Amino acid sequence: MMSLASYLIISLVLFIVGLTVMIARKNIVAILLGIELVLNAAALNFVAYSKYVTNNLDGHVFSLFIIVIAAAEAAVGLAIVIRFFQIKETIHIDEATQLRN
Amino acid sequence: MFAQFLFIASALLTVGSAIAVAVTKNIMHSCIFLLGSLLGIAGLYATLGADFVAVTQIMVYVGGVVILMLFAVMLTGGKDFVSRAQNLLGLAPAMGNKFTYAVGILVAIVFAATNIKILMNLPSAPAAAAANSEAFPSTVREIGFLLTKNHVLAFELSSVLLLGALVGAAIIARPKKH
């Protein structure tokens, strides 16, 4: 039951769901939720391979770095979202056209 | 036995909550389901013997990131934008027409085949990992040694990155001056 393949399948489902959220949603905060899911899928893969294949703890350390990067990304991304809402009065992704021309 | 129960419960919580994040129309409910999914991933870390990573996941994500997301949703009105054209299943607001769905199905087939190929070539678990798979030894001491010996440069750089990101976020999100 608890094998490397089961963890990889869970991670695959998380990755696909995160990608779907990033593509299908029109709300910028929802897109950030999808990015969090994708990053968590990657971190879960690192820890699973660290237990079942390499037998050392480098995967754990890399997973911790992923968590740190995700926290920084969430802080900056949400600050940008709030600034965008202050300027445009909406957080629909189709309104983000400032760099189009 | 306990590890099996924890694994099954965590896997169900993770996958179910992640799918609920995708199909829920209310963005606030999506945030709460993301919290459930992240808690499930912490449980999966615990079944892998990564106790320190599991605790860090709970503290950083559930205590920090999801709260930040909830604040952002509340500060921006909490509206989700349902597009006029519903998708095939009528679940989430989606873009696309028949062409994009066809391309998406093709990409999904290729992606699934690639992953099946990778899964068929998995190395079998080493005997040492199979022997202590039920035990939960502490990893805090080894992770501390690794962070201050092998990965010390990345550790310091991540602290500088976190400081810069938080100061930058505070500067970007400050209210407009009149």
Structural notes for this entry:
The complex is a heterodimer of chains A (101) and B (178). Chain A has helices at residues 4-24, 28-54, 58-88. The mean pLDDT of chain A is 89. Chain A is built from 3 helices and no strands. The radius of gyration of chain A is 17 Å and the shape is elongated. In chain A, helix 1 (4-24) packs antiparallel against helix 2 (28-54) and helix 2 packs antiparallel against helix 3 (58-88). Chain B has 7 helices and no strands. The longest helix of chain B is centred in the middle third of the chain and has 25 residues, at 51-75. With 178 residues, chain B is mostly helical. The model of chain B has no long low-confidence stretch (mean pLDDT 80). In chain B, helix 1 packs antiparallel against helix 2 (27-47). Chains A and B meet through helix 1, helix 2 and helix 3 of A and helix 1, helix 2, helix 3, helix 4 and helix 6 of B.
Order of helices and strands of chain B: HHHHHHH
Q: Please trace the helix and strand order of chain A, writing H or E for each element.
A: HHH
Largest sheet of chain B: none
Query: What structural category do the secondary elements of chain A indicate?
Result: mainly alpha
In terms of DSSP E residues, the strand content of chain A is under 5%
pLDDT averaged residue by residue of chain B = 80
Task: Give the radius of gyration of chain B.
Answer: 21 Å
Task: Count helical runs of chain B.
Answer: 7
How far apart are the first and last residues' alpha carbons of chain A, in Å? 54 Å
Number of strands of chain A: 0
Number of helices of chain A: 3
Estimate the helix proportion of chain B, in percent: over 70%
Q: Helical proportion of chain A?
A: over 70%
Shape of chain A: elongated
**What is the gyration radius of chain A calculated from CA atoms?**
17 Å
Keywords (chain B): Cell membrane, Membrane, NAD, Oxidoreductase, Quinone, Transmembrane, Transmembrane helix
Membrane topology (chain B): Multi-pass membrane protein
Protein name (chain B): NADH-quinone oxidoreductase subunit J
EC number (chain B): 7.1.1.-
